[in-house]
Design goal:
Length: 457
């Protein structure tokens, strides 16, 4: 039987979901670089032939650790679905002679190198400048047009994003962004291979996005993501995911599969995504490419990742289009024949729709809740009036336990302040969006306060 070394770190699709798909194709040996979620501990023991949690000392040379572990278990492939481990796994695969993302994987991880590559090839993107000091940020602010977005070069989940509207905001933005990166590292949300990556930043102009020229229904966000895969250097787009509007500054609230876009709009978006992915020279990996939508057909590439979209993006694709992308990629890395989609899938080919909602303590307009509530999914499930045929569930692995306080939303910390992740299945993407808006409006009213939960306990 074939053997796969699964390198686990925080981020990406839920571990329980990903492990089950890989284990259906191969024996699995788990290298756990982050603590395993308590909700999947039992399934890890059942699905894996071995589990190794290396010490801090062993992880200092992560590529060597992955190589030695792969050799020890006789791995035929090495996989990871975490943003924070993709570069190390790609380098390890090169040393092992196994299929992987390739030597240019870092271009899809370090946003500074990514943007420089696109700039050299004339690919549409916001104007930007790399920054390493507060002085660099001041100089960049003088050269670019406000408003600006400061972001960490190696972050994920909108962590350490800060909006700047004037030069006076530079010192506070710089200090807070660095603080958040340090806090994220303590939580395990940080690059695991590149030393000092938390100190690398870039700043970019905030381009004027609009959803109105692209979507018939109100309430969609002004950007989409193209989900796909690179197979032996050939980009294969799978589908588009839509979004709700982000929460200030640019924290993602919800992803919806498929995006309710007409075929011609999809084609143009996919063409730009193909340019962006091809420019990075990736070899064998999932891809997740975010594209900002503007007026009169304008588009800008925001970023690409050498891995599948996080949260519930991949499970949504399996539910809606019947494509097990993790299993398919595993088969490909093991040298098996895989029938990848010839063309990007459209809403007309979807079997209903699915979406995932990040629960944040902000209302539909992005304003903070007036008081602190506690998370309680049974209350949400029973009290929110959803559309006929819609089904809501909670992703326990990515959620606080019932009774835990919902964190106060911190714009700089982004998704680090989420309380839960909910999954909704519905008849079509328009219904998912409508139900999510209902859910967002209801949460600060229906979730109990601390006093109510204490009385019930």
């Amino acid at each position: 039987m074939s053997k796969v070394l699964f390198v686990y770190a925080k981020g990406g699709p839920p571990l329980g979901y990903a492990l089950s798909r890989v284990a259906a194709r191969s024996a699995v040996h788990l290298l756990a670089l982050s603590a395993l979620p308590p909700t999947v501990a039992a399934s890890v023991d059942r699905l894996c032939d071995s589990v190794l949690s290396p010490s801090e000392v062993e992880r200092r040379d992560l590529v060597s650790l992955i190589v030695s572990r792969a050799q020890a278990v006789g791995a035929d492939a090495v996989v990871t679905f975490s943003e924070y481990a993709v570069v190390a796994v790609a380098e390890a695969c090169e040393k092992l002679g196994l299929a992987g993302a390739g030597t240019s994987c870092a271009l899809a991880r370090d946003k500074r190198m990514m943007r420089r590559t696109w700039e050299e090839q004339g690919i549409s993107q916001p104007r930007f400048r790399p920054v390493a000091t507060e002085g660099d940020l001041r100089d960049a602010a003088a050269a670019l047009r406000f408003p600006l977005l400061l972001k960490a070069a190696w972050s994920a989940g909108s962590t350490a994003h800060r909006t700047l509207r004037s030069p006076d905001e530079v010192p506070a933005a710089w200090e807070r962004a660095r603080e958040v990166m340090a806090e994220s590292a303590q939580l395990g949300y940080a690059e695991l291979h590149v030393a000092g990556a938390g100190a690398d930043f870039l700043v970019e102009e905030i381009v004027p996005g609009t959803a109105a020229d692209w979507f018939e229904q109100e309430g969609w966000g002004d950007y989409v993501s193209v989900e796909g895969v690179v197979v032996d250097g050939d980009f294969r787009p799978v589908c588009l995911s839509g979004r709700m509007p982000t929460v200030e500054p640019f924290t993602e609230r919800a992803g919806i599969t498929p995006a309710a876009l007409p075929d011609e709009a999809q084609r143009r978006i996919v063409d730009l995504a193909r340019e962006a992915v091809d420019a990075l020279g990736l070899q064998n990996c999932g891809t997740h490419t975010e594209i900002k939508l503007g007026a009169h057909g304008q588009m800008w590439v925001i970023e690409t990742a050498a891995r599948f979209g996080g949260a519930m993006t991949v499970p949504q694709i399996e539910e809606v289009f019947g494509l097990d992308l993790i299993g398919m990629l595993t088969d490909h890395l093991l040298g098996r024949e895989v029938s990848w989609p010839e063309e990007v899938r459209t809403p007309l080919e979807a079997r209903g729709a699915a979406g995932s909602l990040v629960v944040l303590a902000v209302d539909g307009a992005g304003a903070a809740w007036p008081d602190q509530r506690v998370w309680d999914f049974p209350t949400v499930r029973d009290a929110v009036p959803l559309s006929v045929g819609s089904h809501l569930s909670v992703v326990a692995e990515n959620s606080l336990p019932d009774g835990a306080p919902v964190p106060v939303y911190d714009p700089a910390a982004g998704a680090n302040t989420m309380a839960a992740l909910c999954l909704l299945s519905a008849t079509d993407p328009e219904t998912v969006l409508r139900d999510f808006r209902t859910l967002v409006d209801a949460l600060p009213e229906i979730l109990p306060t601390d006093g109510i939960m204490e009385a019930q306990s």
